[in-house]
Amino acid sequence: MNPWILAVRPRTLPAAIGPLLVGNILALELEQFSILIACTSMLCAILLQVATNLANDYFDFKSGIDTEERLGPVRVTQSGLLAPEKVRNAMTLCLVLAIIVGSYLIYHGGWPIAFLALAAILGALGYSGGPYPLASHGLGEVAAFVFFGLVAVVGSYFLQAGETNTAAWILGCAIGFLNAAIMLVNNTRDIETDAKAGKKTIAVRLGIGQARVIYQAFVYLPFALIIGSFFLGFLPGAPVLLAGLALIIARKLNSDFSVTSGEALNPLLGRTAKLTMIFSGLFSVGLFFV
Fold first, then answer.
1. Domain tally, the chain
2. Could you report the per-residue pLDDT of 87-123, keeping only the tens digit for each?
3. Could you give the angle at which helices 247-257 and 208-231 cross, rounded to 10 degrees?
4. Comparing C-alpha atoms, which of 269, 284, 253 is closest to residue 174?
5. In a domain, 4, yes or no
6. Which domain holds residue 283?
7. Which tens digits make up the pLDDT trace of 33-65?
8. How many C-beta atoms surround the C-beta of residue 210 within 10 A?
9. Hey, what's the torsion of the CAs at 75, 76, 78, 83, to 10 degrees?
10. 241-271 burial code (b ≥16 CB/10 A, e <16)
11. Contact between 18 and 175 (Cβ < 8 Å)
12. Rounded distance, CA 235 to CA 211, Å?
């Protein structure tokens, strides 16, 4: 496989695409809805996700976290497939492109979007790099919840509407939990190597038993949120019903995660990412036809 495809990690892109899809479809009925804004925000999110992946590859190699004992998918820097300078330059290019694309969004959305853009860039760099790497201090799942849940859904809706609403915040939380579950699978798989490297993820801090309990909460809470919100009148029934079908997948994932560890978690990582996309896609279809 082309090493750049390995570096970009396409299987992680649903984490960026799903919440942007929901946020924009939620605003579709608005008179001022703009397909240009929707496509631009999606492109910006994908660029930031790719930049984050490249940053993880580069900074984890430079800090010594990625070693030959790594159990996850191939990291191109650690494996020698790409020179560190090339990965760093590609990361920088993606961030520059995200800033260029995002400039239009900032022009359209004003200072709130400028603040979110700055936070997103700092998050991309600070996840694995900088003086206080979020991933090394048990904040990886929190970052995924905030940036690939709340910021992505609420921010994309705000760009279209000029304001937020309760539904956007609820869906931001729901998708944020699913994306946090992706991160938790990754960190649970690497629990032994991360502990050796001094990377204190939630899985390292609490152990695999508690990580499995947290994963169960992450994949079930989104369904509790949308069902409860339907009964409270915050969400319409059709999208809740459709997205609820993904609960079948969530139950299977939870069952498999509870008895799996180490390298065997790699396929489950991709399946958890697919759950985010399926949940987001089904909810969006339901919204579209309401």
1. 1
2. 899 999 999 999 999 999 999 999 999 998 899 888 8
3. 170
4. 284
5. no
6. 15-288
7. 999 999 999 999 999 999 988 888 888 777 766
8. 12
9. -160
10. ebbbebbebbeebbeebeebeeeebbebbbb
11. yes
12. 30
